[in-house]
Amino acid sequence: MSASTTRAGTTVEVTAATDSAESSPVRRHLITWIAVALASVALALITRWIHTGDEYWGQRWTVDLTVYLASGETVREGNSLYDLVVMSPLYGEMPYLYPPLTALLFFVPLSFLPPVVAGLMWNSASLIALGAAIWLTLGIAGVRNDRARWVLTVLGLVMAACLLPVRLHLIAGQINAFLLLLVLLDFRRAPGRWQGVGIGIAAGLKITPLIFIAYLMITRRWAAARNALAAFLATVAIGFLLLPADAARYWGGLVLHSSRAGGVFDTPNQSLAGALARVMSGEQYDAWWLLVMAVVGLWGMGVALFAFRRGADFLGFSATAVTGLLISPVSWEHHWVYVIPLLVWLAVWAWRKRSLPVAAITAVLVLVFTVRTFMLMGIEESPPSPMTLAAWEQVIAAPFPLAGLALLTLGPLWVGRTFPRRNAGPGATTDPSHPAPGAGAPLPQQPAQSGERPRASADPATRTRAAFGRPTTLLGEEK
Question: What is the C-alpha to C-alpha distance for residues 67 and 83, in angstroms, rounded to an integer?
Answer without folding.
Answer: 12
